Amino acid sequence: MPFHLIFLKKILIIRFSSIGDIVLTTPVVRCLKQQLGAEIHYLTKQQFLPLLEANSHIDRIFTIKKNVSEVLPDLRREGYDYVVDLHKNLRTLRVRIGLLFQPKWLTFKKLNVEKWLLTALKINRLPKLHIVDRYLAATEPLGIKNDGQGLDFFVPQHLHPSYPIPHTSYFAFAIGAKFQTKRLPTAKIVEICQQLHQPILLLGGKEEAAEGEIIAEQSGSHVSNLCGKLSLQESAEVLRRAVLVITHDTGMMHIAAAFQQKVLSIWGNTVPALGMAPYYGTANPDRNTSFEVEGLSCRPCSKIGYQTCPKGHFKCMNEQDVEKIVRQAAL
């Protein structure tokens, strides 16, 4: 380790949202802690605290409800040696100004131009590099190397799920997504569930609760709807105990990968080429199988998503091969 890094005492990592993006920063947290031995602090939004509060590599977590002004006085008192900015937006700029540009600042390449070229013009200039590797590249000045161990998710030891998780083997199906263009139509999910004979637990937030009831009613008694009934940590525990996870391109997908689970990821308007596929690390086998409708000239239409298909046909999900998904689940 370079001499000037031996005396590093305290590092702040910033990522405000969202579920998947925060989980994807955990290799940076772990590598900084283990390779430098520094005190690691993390700044995020209050609603995402459950993702991090049990992480043994983090010494202190700061959260905000709306504005960074809520925590700036406390951050100034900490005397950070470095700030690792893994969000890189106006809010993190306000943190930098609020800290009077005192700590050394490290950040990553967002590649917004390259993402626009791919989504708008279908010209792929993105490097074949996962966002985890781009996050870790930000720490190279500190001598940090990728340990190859993948993502982390820590479930609190005292957690007692409000829903009794079966002791028998089951599939977890994360049916939600923030944007509709990243989600299978309800009828497609029902079709998949009807053809699977393993017990299936449906996961999602309160906004998916009604849809989950429809899916469970139409699919059969082997399907149970847990949407809106579990906390984030309880949902993670369901993922951890599953024998298979079926999911859209969502935060649940990344939590499943953190547990090294077998994942069937179903992609609509987004594509794995954007650098956000399930990440298992170089030391672990890749256990993800991605399902995409190939040959659509309109994909990807966005790096995030829309509430309705811009073209009106929604072929990227309506034409998903259900039989292929079911066969892969049975392997």
Describe it:
The strands form two sheets. A six-stranded parallel beta sheet has the order 8-7-6-9-10-11, with helices on both faces. Strands 3-2-1-4-5 form a five-stranded parallel beta sheet, with helices on one face. It has twelve helices and eleven strands. With 331 residues, the protein is an alpha/beta fold. Strand 9, helix 10 and strand 10 form a beta-alpha-beta unit. The longest helix has 11 residues. It folds into two domains: 136 residues, Glycogen Phosphorylase B (Rossmann fold); 160 residues, Rossmann fold (3-Layer(aba) Sandwich).
β-strand number = 11
Gyration radius (Cα, Å) is 20 Å
CATH topology of the largest domain: Rossmann fold
CATH structural class of the largest domain:
Alpha Beta
Q: So how many helices?
A: 12
Look at the helices and sheets and give the structural class. Answer: alpha/beta
